[in-house]
Design brief:
This protein is an alpha+beta fold. It is about 35% helix and about 35% strand. It has a four-stranded antiparallel sheet. β2 and β3 form a beta hairpin. It is globular and about 35 Å long. The mean pLDDT is about 95.
Amino acid sequence: MALYVLQLRFDLAESDRRMEVRPAHRDYLHELKAAGKLVTAGPFPDQTGAVLIYDVADEAELRDILAKDPYTPANVYEIATLSEWQPLFPIN
């Protein structure tokens, strides 16, 4: 398994649409957390984007997860950064 950090940038012109889809997006994140695929996630206080950390086999699995996220077909974000990550300290 590998850790990946994903930084999203929200399309501010689509804020209303994102708010409509957000409950389904967050339900999906809860499912991923329960399955051990999502380590943590959260938006920036100014609502311009978010950071999510995934524990997946590889980037292909992460891209599959993203394709199934309700935010993706709603087209309310763009990927600012997607990188494999090697933390210095253990994640609990």
